[in-house]
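Methods: example folding runs. The two proteins below were folded one after another, and each record is reproduced exactly as written to the output file, sequence line first and structure-token line second.
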Amino acid sequence: MTNAQNPTIDRDVVVIGAGPAGLMAAYTLKKAGKSVAVLEARERVGGRTWNGKVAGTDGKEHFIEIGGQWISPDQTRLSDLVEELGLKTFSRYREGISIYVDPEGNRHEYTGDRLPVNYATNKEMDKLIDLMNSVAEEVGATEPWAAQRAAELDSISFKDFLAQHTDDQEAIDNVSIYVASGMLTKPAHTFSALQAALMAASAGSFSILVDEDFILDKRVEGGMQSVSLTLAKHLGDDVFLGSPVRELEWATPDPSTADELNNIAADVRNGVENGVLGPVTAVSDKVTVNAKAAVLAVPPNLYNRIQFVPPLPREQQVAHQHISMGLVIKVHAVYETPFWREEGLSGTGFGGGRLVQEVYDNTNYGENFAGGTSGEEDSCGTLVGFVSDVYAEEMWALPAEERKQRILSAMADYLGPKTMEPIAFYLSDMAAEEWTRGAYATSYDLGGLSRWGHLQNQPTGPIFYACSDIAAEGYQHVDGAVRMGEAAAHAILEAR
């Protein structure tokens, strides 16, 4: 398939996707002297990072981060890149009392990093955290599928694995929240203990993963999308927006695989030489690019939006059928002032199994395109909350006003009745966004990571892969996307 109306250009590398991974790949390649073209389906760069606006009843447009936003101390490659690009960061507000809502709906105030649960539950939580620390160390982040117990850990759900070691449901809910609803945005019975261990290992340990002060540390002034916007500026006219790739020609079929009797065309089922440069042609809505390699920098759940010519090898096809995204609603509520601070509260709230399981102070700082002053905090206070998996499905089924009231009421369980009166309210619906179709990142069905994980970073002929979904360190974070984009670029530079 070719589009005769498209201009055709020649480049060393074509990059599909202008999120942090794709832009980092192109940025690295261009610095090394290679010519690139970045094809992006959306009319913006940034992928799952997205600076947005919400209209307030005060007549102003308020800045929000619709997508990913935080940087944790372990995410060193992202931190270095932010500094390299001349961007500034600021710390999340943490001062004051935090709130925990227990399974019975009782509200508890606390300070420090320990949830105010009873002694027995606290002991069980420590036991589970120590257990997952051990498992994370055992499997590692780089090749969890190669661990000695990979198949065993991949055959049992995270929920059932924890339940093997305690019958304290509150402990299970409070420990699993950080991986299940917090990151994978799926119920803990739908993904494996191996998948959870990978999540922990990618951060350094499970203890780090459950330390909300650590993992949700800093934000970029002007929003995380600023990283992609700045990278795109360096690439200039090499970025083509509104250009979804419809077809990628990448290999010569093996004639011996054709079956004329049954009208089956030749394909590459007998294999190709992977990681070797060769001609590729990417056909998008606006431009056709001939190149020597392609970087596929989109989530694996979107690979099937591209027609590969010839089709990808059978093992890739099967693997992609067992990868999916979760579902989450990111809640943004803006107030005239950060009233919770005035009441001595940090704005942080947790409640395992609650409709809104996490709440944080998300007040903005510095300049952004919707307002703000450099070096100053926004006078308006902003809260961010998260509604995950089955609760998100329930909320999207409701009329808009009922949905809003239900969610705000759940947040008020943490921070009181003033939570019900925002001047602006917005729900991020990434699952409805055509070029995302889900929450933060993809994960495998039970048993999938140990069977097919080894394929996800392996090039397919001249196609190289880059996104946070297949990262080791920085898995599911912008840091992972940056690392994978850079790694794909280096692999191409070293290829023959």
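Second run, written to the same file directly after the first:
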Amino acid sequence: MTKVLVAGGGTTGTIIATVLKSRWGDDHEVHMVYDHSKPGLGVGESTTPAILTYLDIIECPFEEVIRHANCTIKLGIRFKDWLNDGSCYDHNFNSVSEEEVPGVYHKSNGTFGYEIANKFNNNTSSYSPDYLDDNIIPVGGRGTFALHIDASKFSKYIQSRFEGRIKYIDGVISKVITQNNSISKVILEDGQELKYDLYIDATGNSRSLIKHLHPEWVSRRDCIPVNRSLATSVSNPDGPVPSYTLSEASKDGWIWSAPLGNRYGTGYLYSTDHTSDDEAHKRYSQWLKKHHSHTFTDCRTIDFESGYLKEQWIGNCISTGIASGFIEPLESTAIHTVVFQSELISQFYPFRVLDYNRGTYNQKVISLCEEVIDFIRLHYYTRRRDSKFWRYMDDTTPDWIVELGEKAKFDFFNGYDLRNTRNLFDHNNYSILLDGLGLHTPRGASYYLQRTKIYNIAKEVHTSMMRVKAKNRMNVMDHRQYINYVLGFQSQGDHHY
């Protein structure tokens, strides 16, 4: 029987441990070690639809998570003032599923034809903006969505579902003994010695396990200089609940806001190379007062650096989550990465471990990191130059982004234009972003339709999907009302989104 130790009791450790236990069953032991007295960050976290994949793996209805972990529905991300003109654009999930339009969906290479048709016909893509503007969510449809989660409550609730299946060890790691580029044992502060076949580091920036194997850090700070966050929460027990994560550009960075059931988790992210802490505090305080009538009194300061470990799996130790790397959270990719890592580990282990397994794992995770870095960096192609920060971002725009921007004016972005292997962001995501940045034009969409001779297919897709969207639009619910509705039931499966 393989014995696995997951170090870290936060969101990352919880996801990794529960996926492995769900995939492997009782043939292998999975234990977690962490300081049970140490409080979690407790701020809101924005996710991608991968959170629902995870809940399916562990057989947990998302309604139960809403009920126990203060969660809300997320239909996408709203980007505000990135062009420095007060405008907004939405990076929404697809509101129409493949199952709802099976015939035309495949004809159009998934939703791609829909995005083309929408642009050509001057229509909106994905969820209509009024969903987001009116704080409503569709119910009964099969569109894609994600969750905003309270990280601390989420972890505690999920762990409670695995009581008796996963062993939870209360302790603080004091020593890590290594031999032959692997971990031989872990010693806790109380003297307890822990010996396992596989060690998984989910300890965040401390990297309590993997650091003893001396991995090389690959910094991408030159590309993404944002490296500090001020985070706090704002009470919202009875007010409207948005169905999106807000990412609002500021003079020196950007502000995020994720709605939870009874509060907002918010934060201000900036680059210490381009602004002072005093100036960042001032701007964040002004924003909080303006949007939430909140007096800035208490916040957490979180330092980070965008980058990743060159070797994420060394010997018998695998780093996961922030311990393996971190990319600025502009697209809420942290939990997505953890779910991706957990699935890879479940496939590569506990079968015979070869150097090939480690190499393949490292390559796949790093590929995802680079894919996220590319997509995040594209968000900054706004041509703003109103501060030291934005002048730096404009002056250091990678050549491939400049060239992509020029192409987008005359042709439609497609799958062949992707620089990295598609793990998370496909051509639809890029098209939405390029459109939001003002780089796509009706001329480019028209040219693509004519060049590829798929105008009729795109029109068919557009017509079919708009019909489904109109139908779904007739069955909506106020987001706060929906949350209260779910909270009113005590048994699983009472209501389905």
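Comment on the second run: Residues 355-379 form the longest helix (25 residues).
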